[in-house]
Amino acid sequence: MKALVYGGPAKRSWEDKPNPTLQEPTDAIVRITTSTICGTDLHILKGDVPEVMAGRTLGHEGVGIVEEVGPAVRNVAVGDKVLLSCITSCGRCDYCKRTIYSHCREGGWILGRLIDGTQAEYVRIPFADTSTYKLAKDANEEAMVMLSDIFPTGYEVGVLNGAVKPGDVVAIVGAGPVGLSALLTAQLFSPAELMMIDLDPNRLEVARSFGATSTFDASKPDLVEELLEKTGDGVDVAIEAVGIPATFDLCQKIVAPGGHLANVGVHGKPVQLELQKLWIQNITLRTGLVDTYSTSQLLKMVNAGRLEPIKMVTHRFPLSDTMKAYDTFGAAAREKAIKVILQAGR
Ligand code: NAD
Ligand code: ZN
After folding, report:
1. So what's the pLDDT on residue 157?
2. Mean pLDDT across the stretch 267-288?
3. How many beta carbons lie within 10 A of that of residue 102, not counting itself?
4. Confidence band of 134 (pLDDT split at 50, 70, 90)
5. For the chain, how far is it from start to end, CA to CA, in angstroms?
6. Which ligand number lies closest to the CA of residue 244?
7. Does residue 55 surpass a pLDDT of 80?
8. CA distance linking residue 203 with residue 341, whole number of Å
């Protein structure tokens, strides 16, 4: 089969690889029908996630058809269409029992990181019963694949960790797919204001069309002063959805006393934590790797038409053009890209 293989920082190739095979009785082999690329894949290529070894197939988002199941798999069968969660969970360990699936003793975020991922024709899914969601045969795969990672991430690590409440003033720094997912799911809680901050004018325009009440160019030198002036004391919730020191710093400078700072971005470098200023302001700082405990809830909202993740899709490529899809997603501002879909035979 063919797969998108990481070759070390800044190196990737579309290569032949042996098809995956069942290794444990709880495994399934899934033929990928729809996949996509995440901002985290770009971090991996920047070298920000050093545990990813050369030779690894990337990708932790996907929808596919079950081709083969191990003898212990109960919930999914050959021929089923399934959504693959970016987080693998055994469902049995101490962390899974506390719904901290991201730290499952035998799973967690392993797909496209510690085991081969979903930007390939086939993928092995460990603990298939607890790591996949059965979809209707006619499910919109492009909408569903947004629930592998970006929607649970924006919702759990941004909106829920940020404790967005009715009437809150919320600032989201980073209008990529994750920041935009936070923007869409924050609206479930009726905040008074939703401010989006990014460098990319196109993404800010998309943010306004998705319900942002105001948008700001992150390159403005007096942005902190402008935001503090506009909000009085600062924002109730600051969501960091970029993953660089500058955006974390912006969040800690604009959060109001009693407010929440929810960091979503994957950081490759340390940040300067202004604890000497934050403690006396009663700031709650949350961080986290997504657990995907909200996936079933999000699926229901999408099926009921309360969330429209398909709005994120700007580009489509055949799976065999994954290299080109990376070029496009990697130049998102120039290409006006939000989420790029990789289509395989459906
Ligand atoms: P992305 O790269 O598509 O988007 C990042 C956005 O940040 C872009 O729109 C970019 O223009 C903007 N940006 C860059 N520099 C900026 C600056 N100085 N000020 C303001 N905006 C700036 O990525 P994404 O897919 O939306 O993911 C966002 C972050 O979330 C990434 O760090 C990703 O790794 C992380 N992530 C975290 C989890 C988790 O479990 N915590 C899961 C998935 C993704
Ligand atoms: Zn577990």
Report:
1. 98
2. 96
3. 21
4. very high
5. 16
6. 1
7. yes
8. 18
Q: Distance, CA 143 to ligand 2 centroid (Å)? A: 27
Which ligand 1 atom is at minimum distance from the Cα of 329? 3
In this structure, which residue's CA is closest to atom 9 in ligand 1?
Answer: 176
Provide the CA 110 distance to its chain's centre, in angstroms: 14
Residue 270 exposed, middle or buried by CB count within 10 Å (0-12, 13-18, 19+)? exposed
Within 13 Å and on the Cβ side, how many CA atoms surround 96?
A: 16
**What whole-number distance in Å separates Cα of residue 317 and Cα of residue 126?**
27
pLDDT tens per residue, range 139-160: 999 999 999 999 999 999 999 9
Q: What is the rounded distance in angstroms from the CA atom of residue 229 to the CA atom of residue 285?
A: 23
Residue with tokens 């912006």: 250
- 35: exposed, middle or buried (Cβ count in 10 Å: 0-12, 13-18, 19+): buried
SS3 142: helix
Atom of ligand 1 nearest to the CA of 203: 9
Tens of pLDDT, residue by residue over 27-43, are 999 999 999 999 999 99
Q: Which two tokens stand for residue 116?
A: 């081969």
- pLDDT at residue 268, as a whole number: 84
* Torsional sign, CA 47, 131, 108, 70: negative
pLDDT of residue 346: 61
Q: Under a CB-based contact definition with an 8 Å cutoff, are residues 215 and 208 in contact?
A: yes
User: What's the chain's average pLDDT?
Assistant: 97
Residue 296 CB burial class (10 angstroms; 0-12, 13-18, ≥19)? exposed
Tell which phi-psi region holds residue 232, choosing left (phi > 0), alpha (psi between -120 and 50) or beta: left
